[in-house]
Amino acid sequence: MAETRQWRLASRPTGEPTRENFDLVTVDRPEPGPGEVLVKTLYQSVDPYMRGRMRDEESYAEPWDVGDPMQAGIVGEVVQSEADDFDEGDVVTGNLLWAEHAVADADELRPVNPELGPVSTALGVLGMPGITGYFGMLDVADPSPGETVVVSAAAGAVGSVAGQIARLSGARVVGTAGSEEKIDWLTDELGFDAAINYKETDDLEAAVAEACPDGVDAYFDNVGGPITDAVWPLLNVDARVAVCGQISLYNETEVPTGPRKLSKLIESRARVEGFLVGDYQSRWGEALESLSEFIQQDDLHYRENVVDGFENAPDAFLGLFEGENIGKQLVKVAERGE
Amino acid sequence: MAETRQWRLASRPTGEPTRENFDLVTVDRPEPGPGEVLVKTLYQSVDPYMRGRMRDEESYAEPWDVGDPMQAGIVGEVVQSEADDFDEGDVVTGNLLWAEHAVADADELRPVNPELGPVSTALGVLGMPGITGYFGMLDVADPSPGETVVVSAAAGAVGSVAGQIARLSGARVVGTAGSEEKIDWLTDELGFDAAINYKETDDLEAAVAEACPDGVDAYFDNVGGPITDAVWPLLNVDARVAVCGQISLYNETEVPTGPRKLSKLIESRARVEGFLVGDYQSRWGEALESLSEFIQQDDLHYRENVVDGFENAPDAFLGLFEGENIGKQLVKVAERGE
Question: Which residues form the Enoyl reductase (ER) domain (chains A, B) (predicted)?
Answer without folding.
Answer: 18-331
